[in-house]
């Protein structure tokens, strides 16, 4: 039975790889109705990402994708849980519901430790969407996202730069400078998506600095190799004085024998 399931999944994937979206979708739908999470998430993915599937009308695409994301999320699939938050945040296949989006992001953050869900919660705390606006909690969730995944460090850096500007404006407002701050209406000056423009500018500046440092590092002349330490000449020992010749004892001359 298990081998048959694998073969059916591979057949459906082969149809998807060859561009036969309708055939792949039908095969995944049959398996999804049997409760297999992989098939449920693949059905939702095809309906969400491709426009080549012609089985359902355009009005049915997102609601059916939402249905299968819901089934896959119920089986613990993290991406499906985040997709549910996205669908309720943007109003795909349902009405815009920030409170429900927060619930799904919080579940993905607490149960699956998803960096994407933590980042989204930070953004919603920053904007006050479906949850109380709190700059400090926004920074906390941004920091948690950076700790949860190295891939989130650059987006978190950009978000924190933007958050610093928002915090500065709020701080000036708290210092009874509301007249000055009220004149700085960024939504009216730069548009409702000024934060995206700011993050884009910061990303370009960051990329320019990194490229400049890499070019400067490549242009630097190579260091000469370190010279090995030279051996210190050892002082030569003074020549030992030659021992004086020892006098050799000579035998005394023998007396000549008296001639008889």
TrEMBL record:
Residues 221-247 have a biased composition (Pro residues). It comes from Umbra pygmaea (Eastern mudminnow). This is Uncharacterized protein. PANTHER family: ERAD-ASSOCIATED E3 UBIQUITIN-PROTEIN LIGASE COMPONENT HRD3A-RELATED (PTHR45084:SF1). It comes from the Eukaryota. Residues 216-260 are annotated as: Disordered. Gene3D superfamilies: Tetratricopeptide repeat domain. Pfam families: Sel1 (PF08238).
């Amino acid at each position: 039975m298990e081998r048959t399931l694998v073969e059916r999944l591979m057949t459906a994937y082969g149809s998807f790889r060859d561009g036969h979206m309708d055939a792949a979708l039908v095969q995944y739908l049959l398996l999804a109705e049997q409760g297999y999470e992989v098939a449920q998430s693949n059905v939702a993915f095809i309906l969400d990402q491709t426009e080549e599937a012609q089985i359902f009308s355009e009005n049915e695409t997102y609601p059916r994708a939402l249905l299968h994301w819901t089934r896959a999320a119920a089986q613990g699939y993290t991406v499906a849980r985040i997709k549910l938050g996205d669908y309720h945040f943007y109003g795909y296949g349902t009405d815009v519901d920030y409170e429900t989006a927060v619930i799904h992001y919080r579940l993905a953050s607490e149960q699956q430790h998803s960096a994407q869900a933590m980042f989204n919660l930070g953004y919603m705390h920053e904007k006050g969407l479906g949850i109380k606006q709190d700059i400090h909690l926004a920074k906390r969730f941004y920091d948690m996202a950076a700790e949860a995944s190295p891939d989130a460090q650059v987006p978190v850096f950009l978000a924190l730069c933007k958050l610093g500007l928002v915090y500065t404006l709020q701080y000036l407002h708290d210092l009874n400078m509301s007249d000055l701050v009220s004149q700085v209406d960024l939504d009216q000056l730069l548009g409702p998506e000024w934060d995206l423009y700011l993050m884009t500018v910061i990303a370009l500046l960051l990329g320019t600095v990194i490229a400049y440092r890499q070019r400067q590092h490549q242009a630097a002349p190579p260091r000469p190799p370190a010279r090995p330490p030279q051996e210190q000449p050892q002082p030569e020992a003074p020549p030992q004085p030659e021992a004086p010749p020892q006098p050799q004892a000579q035998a005394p001359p023998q007396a000549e024998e008296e001639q008889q």
